[in-house]
Amino acid sequence: MGCGSSTPAVDVGSDLRAVNNGPAKPQPDPDSTESLANETYFTPSEVDALRELYSKLSNELHQDNIIHKDEFMWALFKANKDNLFAERVFELFDIKQNNVIDFGEFTRSLSVFHPKAPLPEKAKFAFRIYDIGGNGRIEREELKRFLVALMADNPDVDLDEQALDEIVDQTFTEMDLTKDGVINPEEWTTLVHRNPDVISFMTLPVLQDVCLRYPTPNKLRPDGSNSRRQQQ
Known about the structure:
two-stranded antiparallel sheet, kinase binding, Recoverin, domain 1, EF-hand domain-containing protein, repeat, CNBL1-10, mainly alpha
């Protein structure tokens, strides 16, 4: 009398496929110098220099090689108190939304501030800074909050409530082309193309000098020689 086997059948085909395909290839590091240089407006040398800068910033207050909000605000904005602009920039840099900024996020986000980054990309990022609610439009109260924050950071600027409202009204008169009470991305882009100076803060010329400010240690070529000339 026969009986059924309790041993599962072996999938010979899958074993052969595994042998033929060989071991799985390691995935490239998305935060390698080469990967980041390909994704951003930084050169490989600039990416390496940014690593030096990042290493310094990420250990200012917390020795963990990750930039926390307090480190970000102090190191980049010299702000040791609430700063709306700095808060918004940190939130946009924090792509993973885990309240810290790793090197990949730092480099990818900082790229839009590079002088080589095109104006449309800069305009889009600047719009997101002012769009506090993240709903794709700049509302009157959002603009007013930035004006109030500006006064808090600049003691020389002292405007009363009426003056603030007048500035907001004038701004919306010029920018709100559809007269719907909000500034949409198209209206913002029109303004930027007409007057690029409104987002001059989106270009940091210092990023082109980052290699000089944060030189990386000399690297050795395969033949053992230095890859960069020794500075005299």
